[in-house]
Amino acid sequence: MPHLDIWPFDITSLLFVLLCFTFIFYISKPLKMYNFPPGPRALPIIGNIHILDLKKPYMTLMELAETYGSVFSIQMGLRKMVVLYGYETIKDALLSHADEFAERPKIPIFEKITRGNGIIFGHGESWKAVRRFTLSTLRDLGMGKRTIEDKIIEECDYLVKTFGDQNGQPFQTLLFLNAATSNIIVSIIMGHRLEYGDENFKKLLEMNNRNFVLTGSPQVQLYNIYPIIHSLPGFHHDVLRHQDNLKAFFKKIFIEERKVLDENSSRNFINSFMKKQETEKKNPHSHFHEWNLLCTVTNLFVAGTETTSNTLRWAILLMVKYPEIQKEVHKEIDRVIGTSTPRFHHRQLMPFSDAVMHETQRFADILPMDIPRETTVDVTFRGYFIPKGTYIIPLLRSVHRDKKYWEKPDEFYPSHFLDSEGNFVKREAFMPFSAGRRVCAGETLAKMELFLFFTSLFQSFSFHAPPGVTEKDIDLSPVGGLTLSPKPQLVCAVKRKDFA
């Protein structure tokens, strides 16, 4: 009688399948035992990718919170992540549990770029040492002081002249605003500004802007989930190439800076870092090495350019969209500043303009998912167990759209920051610079830049839509990427003395 093989595979295959199921059982069991945050059911290999809008992932997460609450989980590929939703929850995590949520996860594209160095995606003791040094050096170089204010005012003059050179004709603000805001951090890094027409400068700005779009693209998100695809064609290669070009630019600056290294003074950030290197050159474990300098300088350039420039682009577009608000800004500038040079101390006397800038940051919500965090230890948070090394997404969108704290969360409404008598009021559910241990190192600088650039531009110009375009035609839907930016749209900057 012939032998009938009732098994669809041999005994080796059967043992392999049983081993896989055993492995899956044991790695998933602790999460259930220790009350890991709930979330949608994940599929093998892909996790929850199939339910996520990779062009607007923050919107999917906002919707999932309605089902799973203020602390929930999703799975991207094989990696489980915890999402924090709402002001109270995010405040609790980033401020009340600051140390537990202070690490940065190893995101493949950024690990390729930094190897764990720098002040944005750095890890552990290296990040702590460099961040302390950076904050101290930025203060020494004038951040928050009159010296840096004078540099910003000087740059405002260049920007106003450049806008005026457009003679009221339609133009794109992107390159000019990028160059102006970049020049502030460039002057800190290198000790001098760059001309807007400098071809190398323009290329750096274009690559930087392009990288912010690419790093948030579905292609690069998939690369971060499945880094094994590195050798395949994709946008991740463009991102890495652009970063290499940026590093090559600063390497040339380093060579020149070392030729005139001054041990007795700190002319700029690069000089200060190199002096620190000299004092620690005998320390084999020093974090102040060439690669960390390169990563830190590029971090400062990238972050110091994009977010401030982006906010100003949103502000101009919103003033075009809402001309009645722009008129109130003009009235306040005329009353408080007149024809004098705008200064940062004027902000205390200009509650409406200050409210407009704050509301621009809230409404534009440039970094809706924050830069991810990672838990440094096992932590029990709001009744859930979150193991050490868990990828954390603080959903800042949920802070700036929290209905408990905002009267009209989905509208541009400067009165959010004004009381009944027109005085400026701080709002607690406001985190455009994040919070906790990883709060933006340049927050003080950015606040000064935003106010001075904004008031200088609106002191000189009225902004309008191009001929044939109405306020209703202005599109406020954002362009996705690592940050949310306004769609490219032409505007007209009309000199106010010529405006009827």
Strand and helix map with partners:
Blueprint: H1 11-33, H2 57-68, E1 71-76, E2 79-85, H3 87-96, H4 108-114, H5 124-140, H6 146-164, H7 174-190, H8 199-215, H9 218-225, H10 235-259, H11 269-279, H12 290-321, H13 323-336, H14 351-364, E3 373-374, E4 379-381, E5 384-386, E6 391-395, H15 396-400, H16 443-460, E7 461-464, E8 478-479, E9 485-486, E10 492-495
Parallel strand pairs: 2-6
Antiparallel strand pairs: 1-2, 3-6, 4-5, 7-10, 8-9
Helix pairs in contact: 6-7, 6-16, 7-8, 7-12, 8-10, 10-12, 12-13, 12-14, 12-16
Task: Explain what you see.
- It is found in: Endoplasmic reticulum membrane; Microsome membrane.
- Belongs to the cytochrome P450 family.
- It holds the Pfam family p450.
- Its cofactor is heme.
- The protein has helices spanning about 10-35, 55-70, 85-95, 110-115, 125-140, 145-165, 175-190, 200-215, 220-225, 235-260, 270-280, 290-320, 325-335, 350-365, 395-400, 445-460; strands spanning about 70-75, 80-85, 375, 380, 385, 390-395, 460-465, 480, 485, 490-495.
- By secondary structure, it is α+β, with helices and mostly antiparallel strands.
- The strands form 4 sheets. The protein has a 4-stranded mixed beta sheet with strand order 1-2-6-3. It has a two-stranded antiparallel ribbon with strand order 4-5.
- Strand 8 and strand 9 form a beta hairpin.
- It is globular.
- Residues about 1-30 have low confidence and may be disordered.
